[in-house]
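Bug report (template v2)

What were you trying to do?
Predict the complex of my protein with zinc ion.

What happened?
Run completed; filing so the output is reviewed.

Input:
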Amino acid sequence: MENLWAPWRMEYIKKVDKEGCIFCTKPVEDKDTENYILHREKYNFVILNCYPYNPGHLMVVPFKHLSTPEDLTSEELLEHYELVRKCITALKKVSNPDGFNVGMNLGRVAGAGIDKHIHTHIVPRWNGDNNFMPVLADVRVVNESLPATYQKLAQCF
Ligand SMILES: [Zn+2]
């Protein structure tokens, strides 16, 4: 097995990785409506998941490209969870769910679709929507259109 020690390459890999990361590229495009970015704070933003488990599936994402929440400062983490709380409030107002799945998948093995940039999922649940949802690990097709969901939720932030 080849095993080359080239520390400068890590920087290159990180850079390329970051350039291809939707959580890094979307916020700088300045097209929040098209990108379904609902809200921005200082360290984090809220975005609608385009491949939702349920209508209104939201994600809170730090602007920093980090693969573990251990690298967030306390201030960034506090804001992150304040936004999670705002998402729950907004979803309750707009779609009256019976419950929520809230959480992070860290690493591919845990079901993270994008494992290099952490994000917290907020998935509204309704009684009978799916008894055994493959929790945050698979993609389901939902009927409500994203632009309509976006418009409803945008008014809550
Ligand atoms: Zn990123």
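What did the reviewer find?
The first strand starts at residue 37 and ends at 40. The chain has one domain: 7-154.
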